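WARN  no MSA supplied for this record, continuing single-sequence
INFO  ligand: zinc ion
INFO  echoing inputs
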Amino acid sequence: MSRIEGIEQFKLVKDSNIGFIVFSDDDAKTIHQSKCDVITEGKFASNEGNGFHWFSTIEMARKSFSIVMCDACKPNI
Ligand SMILES: [Zn+2]
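INFO  complex generated
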C-alpha cells in the first residue's frame, strides 16, 4: 500500500485520475475512484492526510484493508 503523504501528492493522484483512494476513518475504510467528488482537498486537509492510501487496483486494496465501496462513485462498476 502507499500512504498519500501530503497535499501535493494528493493533488497528483486526483489530477491523474488513475487508481483508487482508500479513506479510513473510525467507522470504515471506503474505497473511491481517484476522481470521486467525495474525496476533496478539504477533506484531506481537515484530516491532515491521515487515513488516505492510494492503490492501483481494488484487489491490491483488498490485500491491505477490509474495504467497502463508495456509494457515490461505485468503484467496482
Ligand atoms: Zn467515492
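Residues 32, 36, 38, 70, 72-73 surround zinc ion (CB under 6 Å).
INFO  checksum written, moving to next record
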